[in-house]
């Protein structure tokens, strides 16, 4: 949950919660419900919102020193691209409120040896030193035919062999001399086909998908057709993309003053919008085109932490600014299950710390669904949507006390396969309703609202977005912008199937 101190203006809320926590269980049902943030008093399967980050670099994201004999691979230079140890990253992740993290270093020639002989022992060390954090052994893959992506392998006695084998086989920069055949789009499809057949399939999430885009809808290394190919090849492995990329401190100098020679996310050709990639931020854009096909295609948010901005970098620590919340038990397998199945919402600047959505047909005995799920309704039936959001008290790690100003209910139709593999629009997607404080009930830190979708005729989906700004739509980010003043949260969809 939140790891920030309460402000004077909201201290009474925290004091009241502390008092309730001292009461016997039979006298404090509301306090226990608030701990989980569920719409109707808790998650009965033991799951809770686990904050995490699946894109974090250490000193083993190395640089390379060529030798005099060019027939031999260059030597890795530890600390070349990131100056932090994995235990340091783990401690900072825990400090900033994370329950889980993936160590995801990237490499070059023969980097699989670095992963095996240097990175993995330090992952084990970090697990010993920070036992309260679920730490995954992962990799930032230099993706064949595209930019980067996370590979997160399930925790097991074979995890070192599993991950280093995937890097050795499929990282496009692993070979020396360089092999252009490894950098083909078809090679990534081959990799994903291989991964889904493994006894312990990993999770793959595309990183900063539009960082090389030259304009709105002008994609670079990672294009819509590729992401469709990935998802088709292995829908339970290639499950999504970073909605909010890392490097969000690009607009800050070490003293926190504006820096105008860098952009948020290092999106230097075409910017982010409210800190989010154009593939996510544009209503009716690429993400909605994927959802309109019925694809289970999820978004996350990460730090991409290499070097902290106070140390001359462009990054926040894991969890300091962006968090990916997964509804799961605090166990590696269930966290990965949550990522695979979209039980995920993301938030920047600790704007919110729980988002519980219940979508239920208005009929006796009807089954409800939550984020990442699907509900079935009869044609013409009404559907009730109940939302409970935790807007935590106190200051965030940027020294602000943000409040949710608006929550948008976004709705789109299931339209079947897109007319083109390169499609990046769903024209049916719209903001169904914008909610403000006049529409919801606030009890302490919690916001609750209910609305009804009347006479549902077609299969579709709904998703949520909220902000602490006054912007109707996220504005294009500009150099020198302070990210702490531009906070948003996004929740993955709930699908509505009409029979």
Automatic annotation (TrEMBL):
<feature type="signal peptide">
    <location>
        <begin position="1"/>
        <end position="33"/>
    </location>
</feature>
<feature type="region of interest" description="Disordered">
    <location>
        <begin position="239"/>
        <end position="272"/>
    </location>
</feature>
<dbReference type="InterPro" id="IPR006311">
    <property type="entry name" value="TAT_signal"/>
</dbReference>
<protein>
    <submittedName>
        <fullName>Phosphoesterase</fullName>
    </submittedName>
</protein>
<feature type="compositionally biased region" description="Basic and acidic residues">
    <location>
        <begin position="256"/>
        <end position="265"/>
    </location>
</feature>
<feature type="domain" description="Polymerase/histidinol phosphatase N-terminal">
    <location>
        <begin position="52"/>
        <end position="145"/>
    </location>
</feature>
<keyword id="KW-0732">Signal</keyword>
<dbReference type="InterPro" id="IPR016195">
    <property type="entry name" value="Pol/histidinol_Pase-like"/>
</dbReference>
<dbReference type="InterPro" id="IPR003141">
    <property type="entry name" value="Pol/His_phosphatase_N"/>
</dbReference>
